Amino acid sequence: MIADRLQQIGQQAINSVRGFGRAGLMLAGALIGKPNLRKNFPLLVKQLYVVGVLSLLIILVSGLFIGMVLALQGYNVLVKFGAEGMLGPLVSLSLLRELGPVVTALLFAGRAGSALTAEIGLMKATEQLSSMEMMAVDPLRRIIAPRFWAGVICMPLLALIFNAVGILGGHLVGVEWLGVDAGSYWSAMQANVDLYQDVMNGVIKSVVFALVVIWIALHKGYDAIPTSEGISRATTETVVTASLAVLGFDFILTAVMFGG
Amino acid sequence: MSDILIDIQHLSFSRGERQIYRDMNMQVQRGKLTAIMGPSGIGKTTLLKLIGGQLKPDSGNILFEGQNIPALSRAELYQARKKMSMLFQSGALFTEMTVFDNVAFPLREHTKLSESLIRRIVLMKLEAVGLRGARDLMPAELSGGMARRAALARAIALDPELIMYDEPFAGQDPISMGVIVRLIRELNNALGLTSVVVSHDVTEVMSIADYVYVVADKTVIGQGTPEQLRQDPSPLVQQFLRGEADGAVPFHYKAAAYEDELMELTR
User: Which tops the pLDDT comparison, A236 or B2?
Assistant: First the structure.
């Protein structure tokens, strides 16, 4: 009974280590080697469009609303202490340090990550990857690599856009609607936001999240069991695993960056 | 140059617990159309993947032009693959490209030809399969038979030595079936290709093949020209060729005795 249980745990551990191994090999195969700019640049541009530009709408709308909600909630608390002048820093720091990178990564996992997993899983199921291999074209270099780089480039930019729109949303609610003084909204923000400590750390977070989300999405697709059930499971796993990984890494990074 | 393009020697392969091939030998003559037939589920597609180096055998050699495919380095394998091509059962066209770009894909990847030359080659290949007019369609707009022909045009784009067909006749209506049968035979003769056709469609295969291997029970059970094969004394070969439901290959999947199981229910 206990032996069975132990065996099960051991088996699961071995499987997850194997999964990490396969994911690592996939990424190494995709990224190591001489890049061919003439061939790869157009592929990258296409993926930047698919992964980045097409995610823009959801990022803009979410950023705006999260900024507005932050301002509304923050105002209600701050006004009790007569500190509504600090609304600017509250909104901007929350966004730059936490909400921007994290919510962007979660949305990105749902919007672009799941799409990538499904796309690659279906390419596998319809033998497109196999046939590419038989044509002596490495699917890792041709399919995985441009998508990986596109994700890593796009997500920090999307997070920055999210932050900017969020701050404007906060302005809309705080200043235009609730009547916080515009000068104090912006000048308090300017005085309290540090370029390195707040903005750069947010960008670093977002780069880490990008690596994690896109790697998980590509690996789940590439490793999917090539049936309709397998692909649907892989897509779900991408969103769940990537979201949990983002939250986990966020805690670690926050502890390192702002903990001490 | 030797007359044998592919020489499979003592091939054994298993997938997990299940053994698929045991000590199998097979040869494919250059310039000939060799067919591999057998009941479904015996790993005919697996054999093509072994030849293409996508899977590695447990033991044995697979010589392609004298090179042992499983022993090649990655770079050598990719070089060898430029000389072979494979037509997948589904066609496996790239869904995000037009038919034209699909056929141009291997040319753009492996040659430095100018776009105008590529255009000319692609149109020639599409003409050969009768789809020159369909060049601007997306794969989703093609019927199953057309998709397979487009994939065939892509497979011959680089003028390979060897072309492998995975179940080219499966799921085709009689007309597209006729078209594909004719195309396979004509391409083999006109381009001097070596063709390997994996199929279980006995009539079609027997009508075009130069040499036939019948694979069952993990190894080759019969071989020869279609004429020789019809005379083969093996009951298994005869059952397969005539399509009889019961015989050397039993109709029933392995099970406990019928009476015993029924009795158990009443108990």
Answer: A236
Burial class (CB in 10 A: 0-12, 13-18, 19+), B262: exposed
| Longest pairwise C-alpha distance within chain B | 78
- In total, the C-beta contacts within 8 angstroms joining chain A to chain B are 47
Element (H, E) at B18: strand B18-29
Which of A128, A131, A138 is nearest residue B86 as measured by Cβ atoms?
A: A131
A3 vs A248, more confident: A248
**Which of A127, A141, A147, A227 is the best residue to mutate to test the B interface, defined by the most B CB atoms within 10 Å of its own CB?**
A127
- The predicted structure's pLDDT at residue B228: 86
Partner A contacted by B88 (CB < 8 A)? yes
Q: What is the 3-state secondary structure (H, E, C) of chain A?
A: CHHHHHHHHHHHHHHHHHHHHHHHHHHHHHHCCCCCHHHHHHHHHHHHHHHHHHHHHHHHHHHHHHHHHHHHHHHHHHHHHCCHHHHHHHHHHHHHHHHHHHHHHHHHHHHHHHHHHHHHHHHHHCCHHHHHHHCCCCHHHHHHHHHHHHHHHHHHHHHHHHHHHHHHHHHHHHHHHCCCCHHHHHHHHHHHCCHHHHHHHHHHHHHHHHHHHHHHHHHHHHCCCCCHHHHHHHHHHHHHHHHHHHHHHHHHHHHHHHCC
**Contact of B47 with B198, CB cutoff 8 Å:** yes
**What residue type is assigned to position A182 of the chain?**
A
CATH topology of domain B4-97+160-264: Rossmann fold (3.40.50)
State the residue for tokens 């302005």.
A171
**Which pLDDT does position B248 carry in this prediction?**
63
Residues in chain A: 260
Residue A55 has what pLDDT? Answer: 92
pLDDT-derived band of residue A64, with 50, 70 and 90 as boundaries?
Answer: very high
The DSSP bridge partners found for residue B158 are none
**Tokens (6 digits) for B126:** 């599409």
Q: Please tell me if residue B86 touches chain A, with a CB cutoff of 8 Å.
A: yes
Higher pLDDT, A92 or B233: A92
Pairwise CA distance, residues B185 & B171, whole Å = 19
Residue carrying the six token digits 């053994």: B19
Long-range interactions of B62-67: CB distance < 8 A, separation 24+? B62/B6, B62/B7, B62/B8, B62/B9, B62/B11, B63/B4, B63/B6, B63/B7, B63/B8, B63/B9, B64/B5, B64/B6, B64/B162, B65/B5, B65/B161, B66/B2
B78:A138 CB<8 A: yes
> What ranges do the domains of chain B cover?
4-97+160-264
Q: What are the tokens at A180?
A: 């916080």
* pLDDT at residue number B250: 63
In chain B, which residues have pLDDT < 50?
none
What pLDDT does B2 receive?
Answer: 63
Interface predicted TM-score (ipTM): 0.80
Spatial distance between the Cα atoms of A199 and A189, rounded to a whole number of angstroms: 12
